């Protein structure tokens, strides 16, 4: 997968480039908007990571120009502006996601993988499974060790999201945006409460435990020896 990073802060840009290369991506890096726009127009990328505040031309203008030119490359906007109005503006201009600075690299990587997965051919599975946990999508049922587990609609969606991303660390903010369709507020514990309730149903009576806390980062669904 080939990515383009447009970031004028040299230290941040190099940090992103190095981390993404180590994560297996081919990465081009530019430090100004015009060079980034030229590369986006003349080369093929799977995803563009675009800073909004650039010294020569804003990320707003770049994304608007790319969409007007018919470029449908997925774009993840980076910005220190975290107001709802700024996020709405970016998404309305054609961005596929919007991440507020400062951010953790783990969350950026999770969002990149999520965006790239949207463009990947999907196998229409009727069931999602891990060990003895089985989710039947058409029937909207969940069983573990053959025992039916009753879930609320939101718990079902949360578990489905975990099952579609096994082994991946999912930050709370990403879970909030993908399952609750809301911006994560660090002062609220809605995500932690929901996951605790889900654990009580799918993990507490069974072994091995599947939903694990990754301290300081989020949660993941995996088969581990211990939490």
Any idea of the CATH topology of the largest domain?
A: Rossmann fold
Beta-strand percentage range = 15-25%
Record field, number of beta strands: 11
CATH class of the largest domain: Alpha Beta
Structural class: alpha/beta
Alpha-carbon distance between the two ends: 32 Å
Under CATH, the homologous superfamily of the largest domain reads Response regulator
Instruction: Provide the helix percentage.
Output: 25-40%
What would CATH call the architecture of the largest domain?
3-Layer(aba) Sandwich
What is the element layout, followed by pairings?
Elements: E1 2-6, H1 10-22, E2 26-30, H2 33-42, E3 47-51, H3 59-68, E4 74-79, H4 84-93, E5 97-100, H5 105-118, E6 127-130, E7 133-136, E8 141-144, E9 147-149, H6 153-163, H7 172-180, H8 190-202, E10 211-214, E11 218-221
Parallel strand pairs: 1-2, 1-3, 3-4, 4-5
Antiparallel strand pairs: 6-7, 7-8, 8-9, 10-11
Helix pairs in contact: 6-7, 6-8
